[in-house]
Amino acid sequence: MTSNLIRALFLISFLCIVIGGYLYLEDVPGSPTLLTIGILSQLVFTLWALYEIWLKSSVERLDKLVWTAAFIVLNGIAGLFYYFVYRDKMVN
User: Fold this and answer.
1) How far apart are CA 68 and CA 43, in angstroms?
2) Range(s) of the domain holding residue 58
3) Distances (CA, A) of 91 to 10, 12, 13, 56, 85
4) Using N-to-C axis directions, what is the helix angle for 31-55 and 3-25, rounded to 10°?
């Protein structure tokens, strides 16, 4: 996948989760659908990020395990940190 597609996927998922969660708390019709789209697209981003991390041989095994645990426990925060900070260091 290209970098622009991944950036769009991450931003769409993040915005859908935040907006869908807020609208769900306000009992707006259709908000569960928006929240579901956000969660599914976040799952796709997480799987792509973990695939990219485990595919790189330059990343140490301990780092791979830490990133895997971070994505499982702190999905949104780990996604933000991975995409905007760590990914540039890993790709270059």
Assistant:
1) 13
2) 3-91
3) 17, 22, 22, 9, 11
4) 150
In sequence order, which residues have a C-beta less than 8 Å from that of residue 37 and are 6 or more positions away? Answer: 16, 20
Q: How far is CA 20 from CA 11, 16, 41, in A?
A: 13, 5, 13
Provide the number of structural domains found in the chain.
Answer: 1
**Confidence (pTM):** 0.78
List pLDDT tens digits, range 6-41.
778 888 888 889 999 999 999 899 889 998 998 898
In the block, residue with structure tokens 């597609």: 5
Mean per-residue pLDDT over the chain, rounded: 84
